[in-house]
Amino acid sequence: DAKTTQPPSMDCAEGRAANLPCNHSTISGNEYVYWYRQIHSQGPQYIIHGLKNNETNEMASLIITEDRKSSTLILPHATLRDTAVYYCIVSSNTGKLIFGQGTTLQVKP
Amino acid sequence: EAGVAQSPRYKIIEKRQSVAFWCNPISGHATLYWYQQILGQGPKLLIQFQNNGVVDDSQLPKDRFSAERLKGVDSTLKIQPAKLEDSAVYLCASSPGTGLGFGQYFGPGTRLTVT
Question: Which residue in B42, B43, B100 is closest to A93 by CB distance?
Fold first, then answer.
């Protein structure tokens, strides 16, 4: 079973920041938090991952709480092309990904 | 840099027939994964290779599914015989290594329909 909990769906206005929450209260000390997204009819796309510290790349920012029990993926300026299912995954020590249902983000004009 | 390549993109077969899918990972990626994604669900790992060795095949239905990665590069996934419930998208992914801290990069998938 997936070790994360995400809201099933969210809406965001185009041009605004999209903040996608994820709970992972049972995460262990050496497990990473990964975010992937899947645009309709495509394979999942890696976005970002982190262990303890906040991370930022050209796609998004990842904010991890100090106790590591939750995190937030931030898309700073959402566009219509960001409409997708976003998966938050806690990875085992083999790198195995267990996908849950994810959050369907709908970016609206 | 070329991404993960998969073929065919679509396949329709009748139940009890056989089918094979091919994957070419990103150059230099040691780890290769096959996932099954049923409509409306997240992908489920079927098998993970590190070079040409199997790391995890605990979710692979071994009575009908088989996979190989003979030279540690390309991989094939076979289903024989197919059942209706095998209708799904089969995704291949690759990663620079096994373990924490590596992202996986996915191909476009093969959509299988079993009639």
Answer: B100
Determine, for residues A32 and B100 on separate chains, whether the beta-carbon distance falls below 8 Å: yes
Paired with B89 in beta bridges are B37, B111
Cα distance between residue B97 and residue B100, in whole Å:
9
Q: What residue type is A13 in one-letter code? A: A
The Cα–Cα gap between A109 and A21 comes to 22
Half-sphere exposure at residue B103, Cβ-oriented, CA atoms within 13 angstroms: 15
Q: pLDDT tens, B67-114?
A: 999 888 999 999 999 999 999 999 999 998 766 677 899 999 999 999
B 60-79 residues with CB < 8 A to A: none
Task: Give the nearest partner residue to B106 out of A43, A49, A98, using CB atoms.
Answer: A43
> Are the C-beta atoms of residues B74 and B23 closer than 8 Å to each other?
yes
The percentage of residues in chain A with a pLDDT greater than 70, rounded to a whole number, is: 97
